[in-house]
Amino acid sequence: MDAQGRRRADNIDPADQWVLNPDTGEYELRLNNSAPQSTVPGPRRAARRAEGAARSRTDAPGRDAPEAPGRDVPAPRRRRAVPEEPAPGRRGRRPAKKTGKGKKVLKWTGGGMALVLVVVGAAGYLYLKHLEGNVDTTDVGTAGASHFRKDEAFNMLLIGTDKRTGEGNEGYGDKGSSGHADTTLLLHVAKDRSNATVMSIPRDMIVDIPDCETKQEDGSFETIPGIHDRFGYSLGVSGRDAGCTMRTVQELTGIKPDHFVMADFNAIKTLTAAVDGVDVCVEKAVNDPDSHLKLPAGPSKVEGEQALAFVRTRHSWGNQGDLDRIKVQQQFLASLMRKMSSSDTLTSPTKLIKLAEAATDALTVDKAIGKVGTLKDIALELKKVPPKNIAFATVPVRDNPAETVKVTVVVDETKAPPIFDAIKNDVSFTEVKQKQQKEKAAVAARLKGTKAPASEVRVQVLNGGAADGSAQKTLNWLQLNESITKSENGGNAPAELARTTLEYAPDQAAQARTLAAAMGLSGAAMKPGESVTNSQGLPTMTLTLGKDFKGAGIPLTGPAKIDVDKSTADKVQCAG
Fold it and tell me: Which phi and psi (to 5°) does residue 223 adopt?
């Protein structure tokens, strides 16, 4: 294949194949070895045309006059008509190629622009790789999810360690600490992104820390035996990693964290500096010699060392214990979230770059979210949640009854389970008004009205996440105890559900009310929709037992009343 053919085969732009013919002074487009396909006037040709045009203007006779005898003047060249504007939808004539200096300028501009785009694109790619190089990752194995899912609810464990590594952190006491789970928050983001819950877990709470498998530097795995001790010891002690803390949270709450983000002391200093400080408020002036925090009463702005002192101090708040410090840390985090999502930050490239550098350099995450693109996706999903619907709460606790001198706490078994269940079932701690108003009206309408006789109720029972055998046990209970004999076992549901639902057609509403009363279902569990056909070919309702199903005959009236002291991210509060 000749060179020109190779160019075409390699998709070379024909514009790069214009050749100057020295004999004619013309630029010729040569796509192969045959004659030129197109020409563009060169300098010599242009000069001859100009000279001929000048003679024509001075010597040519009038339009209708015969040529003067004895004059050897060539007839004026017929001008090519200017083409009309092509009709819409039709291809027009390609414009003539630029020549000489004009063509060089166009070529330089196009090539220069391409170079700029390549450089910028490469710089962006290299910068992303640089940011990824900042992020430390930990392989937590099965303790977390294998990848981040943007279309689902997710749970993320935020761990603040008390490890003293890093410049300027040696003087904070306990400098030999291996890095315990000093501040831990479980962030739950709802599937529809309408709300989120941030639940603090006290570090001095006595819990069961389960056996956990950790990956060693040589790639091997080691199982660290479990202990019954403070929650903070789920990290750092005996080589426990963040995966062990994730497993401890699941053991404690029944909620499986999907991912974790861990930060040390430097994170607070660098993140607050990147956003030019965080606004805080204290009820009275603070002068803490231990943390070196000094603030006047009222609002202030803190960053760097002062911000770290604000979240570390205990002796300035309430009863000077860790539980009061947790409330202050929640207020600080809410203020930091407001500052990071403010227009002042988001519209400043300088601040955004500083924030990206600070965040990636100070954080350790699980391997599944170690890419900068994934961290960006998580940030964008979090940004969808309105601050007024981000609730802060703390695991309810009580004093440890095993201690004479009260130092540690234990889970309040009365108040904590409803909170854990609400998070597992994607229930908001905040008032999402529109949604609640619609649901209340729908619930009232579903439960009111006449009920059908039990003998007329037809229902198919499916297992959608309940314990094995639940569908058959429920079927037996309905037939023996509630006389709902027209019922059958439909097997497993196509997908698992968090909550039990009863779907029925409009003309089955009376049957649905009867079954809801028998099962102890709330109006929220009743789902107007379509009926299905049972084994006798008759229309029937569908009862799907979800993960919240507690057993045949045990009422399902929705989550218990949540007794929790909470705040929201949009509220400015003063610590005291």
Answer: -95, 120
Joined together, the tokens standing for residue 430 give 């905040």
pTM: 0.62
**Cα separation, 221 vs 143, whole angstroms:** 13
User: Measured in Å, how far apart are the chain's first and last C-alpha atoms?
Assistant: 84
Long-range own/partner contacts, residues 547-550 (CB < 8 A, 24 or more apart) = 547/424, 547/425, 547/464, 547/465, 547/466, 547/496, 547/497, 547/498, 547/499, 548/421, 548/425, 548/498, 548/499, 548/500, 549/465, 549/466, 549/467, 549/470, 549/500
H helices of 179-239, in order, are none
Rg, C-alpha atoms of the chain: 37
Q: Are 377 and 555 in contact (CB under 8 A)?
A: no
Query: Under a CB-based contact definition with an 8 Å cutoff, are residues 171 and 185 in contact?
Result: no
Q: For every one of its 576 residues, what pLDDT tens digit does the chain have, with 9 covering 90 and above? A: 444 444 444 444 444 444 556 565 554 545 444 444 444 444 444 444 444 544 444 444 443 444 444 444 444 444 444 444 444 444 444 444 545 545 444 444 455 555 544 544 556 566 667 777 788 899 999 999 999 998 899 999 999 887 655 555 455 444 555 678 888 999 999 999 988 999 999 999 999 999 999 988 888 889 999 999 999 999 999 999 999 999 999 999 999 999 999 988 888 888 888 888 999 998 889 888 888 889 999 999 999 999 988 888 877 777 677 788 888 888 888 888 888 877 777 677 787 788 888 878 878 999 999 988 888 888 889 889 888 888 899 999 999 999 988 889 999 988 888 889 888 888 888 764 445 555 555 565 666 778 999 999 999 999 999 999 999 999 999 999 999 999 999 999 999 998 899 999 999 999 999 998 888 887 778 889 999 999 999 999 999 999 888 888 888 765 445 666 777 877 778 887
Residues 245 and 184 sit within 8 Å (Cβ to Cβ):
yes
Length of the chain: 576
Tokens representing residue 235 in the block: 């990290």
* Cβ atoms of residues 394 and 202 within 8 Å: yes
| Phi/psi-derived region of residue 449, left when phi > 0, alpha when psi is between -120 and 50, beta in every other case | left
CB distance 249 to 151 below 8 Å: no
